């Protein structure tokens, strides 16, 4: 043991010191990350609270969120920026911002889907009906979280194209989908009825829902 210590003792001490320094650095980094995460969360709450009340969020806080390391905060900041832009009346810029979010593969799909729905909703009157249908096709599917909104806009686009039978079928599917908000289902049921399609739930549909 004495021989081993005489030969390698200094290197053992160096290894221990380096290990302790590395461990201390990790502890500092972990604490700093949690602190920054907490500060970022507070900024996110402030920004989203301002946007929800119709007030313009603090530009500096919004910029911090857009550059945050957490993808969720970045996506929320970008969506907030686009929403505030739309509220200010700059629809063209808002559509472009939503389009950039929808096309950004670094952003999680749920945020991109939301951006797609909002983009189409803002530009619906200026878009060709077929373009509306093609853009929303992945979302206008029963069971998709955005089926209500995407399906409704798709059905209206079909009506504009004179395809009332297809539109009626889409409205009926929305009306029978229990996962769609009640207000949207009620509106879809009325539209399906006007188009001559029965959108009432059968006993089998109700049991399967």
Structural commentary:
- With 209 residues, the protein is mostly helical.
- Helix content is 75%, strand content 0%.
- It has a domain at 127-209.
- It is elongated.
- It is a single-pass membrane protein.
Low-confidence stretches: 14-37, 202-209
- Tell me the major beta sheet: none
Question: What do the pLDDT scores average to?
Answer: 76
Cα-atom Rg, whole angstroms? 27 Å
* Measured distance between first and last alpha carbons: 75 Å
Shape: elongated
Number of strands: 0
SSE pattern: HHHHHHHHHH
| Discrete helix count | 10
Structural class: mainly alpha
Subcellular location: Cell membrane; Membrane
Main location: membrane
InterPro entries: SecYEG/CpoB_TPR, YfgM
Domain Ancillary SecYEG translocon subunit/Cell division coordinator CpoB TPR: 5-173
Helices and strands in order, then pairings?
Layout: H1 2-52, H2 59-66, H3 71-87, H4 91-102, H5 109-123, H6 129-136, H7 147-160, H8 164-175, H9 182-194, H10 203-208
Helix pairs in contact: 1-2, 1-3, 2-3, 3-4, 4-5, 6-7, 7-8, 8-9
Summarize the structure.
With 209 residues, this protein is mainly alpha-helical. The chain has a domain at 127-209.
Descriptive keywords:
209 residues
């Amino acid at each position: 043991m004495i021989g081993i210590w005489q030969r390698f003792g200094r290197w053992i001490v160096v290894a221990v010191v380096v290990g302790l320094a590395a461990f201390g650095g990790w502890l500092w980094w972990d604490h700093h990350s949690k602190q920054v995460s907490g500060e970022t969360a507070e900024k996110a709450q402030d920004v989203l609270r301002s946007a929800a009340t119709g007030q313009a969020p603090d530009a500096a806080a919004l910029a911090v969120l857009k550059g945050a390391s957490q993808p969720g905060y970045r996506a929320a900041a970008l969506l907030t920026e686009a929403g505030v832009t739309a509220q200010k009346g700059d629809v063209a810029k808002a559509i472009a911002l939503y389009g950039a979010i929808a096309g950004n593969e670094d952003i999680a799909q749920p945020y991109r889907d939301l951006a797609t729905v909002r983009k189409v909703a803002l530009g619906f009157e200026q878009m060709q009906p077929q373009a509306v249908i093609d853009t929303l096709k992945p979302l206008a599917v029963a069971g998709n979280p955005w089926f209500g909104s995407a399906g409704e806009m798709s059905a209206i686009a079909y009506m504009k194209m004179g395809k009332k039978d297809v539109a009626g079928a889409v409205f009926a599917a929305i009306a029978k989908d229990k996962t769609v908000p009640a207000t949207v289902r009620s509106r879809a049921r009325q539209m399906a009825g006007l188009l001559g399609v029965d959108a009432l739930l059968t006993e089998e549909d109700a049991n399967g829902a």
